[in-house]
Design brief:
By secondary structure, the protein is mostly helical. It has 4 helices and no strands. Helix 2 (34-46) packs across helix 4 (98-114). The longest helix is centred in the last third of the chain and has 17 residues, at 98-114. It is elongated.
Length: 119
């Protein structure tokens, strides 16, 4: 008897949750500079499949990690991070040039501020 009541309560309360588990979606990020447009293209090409909109996907969320630009560049270039924890593919200079890395980091910083959809 109590098992059925508990089961019904679990179904009732479990069905009230939203499937979205992150920050509320804000208005779309304004891509008002050429740097942001190019950076967005690089993000969609290299980062989006593991960090959709900067949030957790195959990889962890990057929206809520306070990391300076130089550390972000090192993280993108190197497989190992924090002694092997948080491994991700490394992107060498022939895959993402220094200029493209600057554009990508600029976009990621702006994305982290806005946390908006890039769809």
């Amino acid at each position: 008897m109590y098992g059925r009541i508990l089961f019904i309560l679990l179904l009732l309360f479990g069905s009230c949750a939203t499937p979205r588990r992150s920050e509320p979606i804000k208005k779309a990020m304004a891509l008002n500079t050429d740097k942001l447009v190019k950076g967005r293209h690089l993000f969609l090409t290299h980062c989006y499949k593991c960090h959709p909109n900067g949030e957790a996907g195959k990889g962890p969320s990057i929206n809520n990690i306070p990391i300076p630009g130089i550390a972000l560049r090192a993280r993108i270039r190197s497989k190992a991070f924090f002694l092997g924890v948080g491994r991700m593919p490394s992107f060498k200079q022939n895959e993402i040039s220094k200029d493209d890395m600057d554009l990508l980091v600029t976009y990621i910083k702006e994305l982290k501020k806005n946390k908006a959809s890039v769809d």
